[in-house]
């Protein structure tokens, strides 16, 4: 089991590496300089998607036993998406606890694994954010966090697009 001090060391290295080698499509930093366990992340809406041009802010919260348990990611910007709960929390496989899915939707290999460490390439935070960018590009409406958005995505795509477009405009106004 990782101790909070081990987690702190891992997170310090991850943040340092991200600052040295920035990745296109997102930026990350500490929410509060005194807390390595909460990061402020901005994800740029991927090109050729409904979210293109948006600047979506999120908070990534790491548990004290990181990397044994996954962080949580919660958008603070409004994001209309089948895989984002109404409170902004992101629901993707890589952020689900390790092991078998009790609901049978995901393979254990798709879920969080403690073998993800900051010493691997791509780094954990980069992997998570790239998974979120992929989620924005390709919503999974099979096991939605936001049932209403999933239903709209499937049945009323024009209405879905209008809501996403409003979210993109709002995110640009917040700059």
From TrEMBL:
Q: Where are the active-site residues found?
A: 91 (glycyl thioester intermediate)
- Any idea where the UBC core domain is? 6-173
Q: Does the keyword Kinase apply?
A: no
- Tell me the CDD domains matching this sequence: UBCc_UBE2G1 (cd23795)
Q: What is its EC number?
A: 2.3.2.23
**GO molecular function annotations of the record:** ATP binding; ubiquitin conjugating enzyme activity
- Which keywords describe this protein according to UniProt? Acyltransferase, ATP-binding, Nucleotide-binding, Transferase, Ubl conjugation pathway
* Record Pfam families: UQ_con (PF00179)
Regarding protein family, the annotation reads:
Belongs to the ubiquitin-conjugating enzyme family.
The record's function comment reads: Accepts the ubiquitin from the E1 complex and catalyzes its covalent attachment to other proteins. Involved in the formation of multiubiquitin chains. Signal the protein for selective degradation.
Protein name as annotated: E2 ubiquitin-conjugating enzyme
Originating organism: Castilleja foliolosa
Gene name, per UniProt, is UBC13
């Amino acid at each position: 089991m990782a101790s909070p001090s081990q987690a702190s060391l891992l997170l310090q290295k991850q943040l340092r590496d991200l600052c040295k080698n920035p990745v296109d499509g997102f930026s990350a930093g500490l929410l509060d300089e005194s807390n390595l366990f909460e990061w402020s992340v901005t994800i740029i809406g991927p090109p050729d998607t409904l979210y293109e041009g948006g600047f979506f802010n999120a908070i990534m919260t790491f548990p004290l036993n990181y990397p044994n348990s996954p962080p949580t990611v919660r958008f603070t910007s409004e994001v209309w998406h089948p895989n984002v709960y109404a409170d902004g929390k992101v629901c993707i496989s890589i952020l689900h606890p390790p092991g078998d899915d009790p609901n049978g939707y995901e393979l254990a290999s798709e879920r969080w694994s403690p073998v993800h460490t900051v010493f691997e390439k791509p780094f954990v935070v980069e992997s998570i954010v790239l998974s979120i960018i992929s989620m924005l590009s390709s919503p999974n409406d099979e096991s939605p966090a936001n049932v209403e958005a999933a239903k709209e995505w499937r049945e009323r795509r024009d209405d879905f697009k209008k809501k996403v477009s409003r979210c993109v405009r709002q995110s640009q106004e917040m700059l």
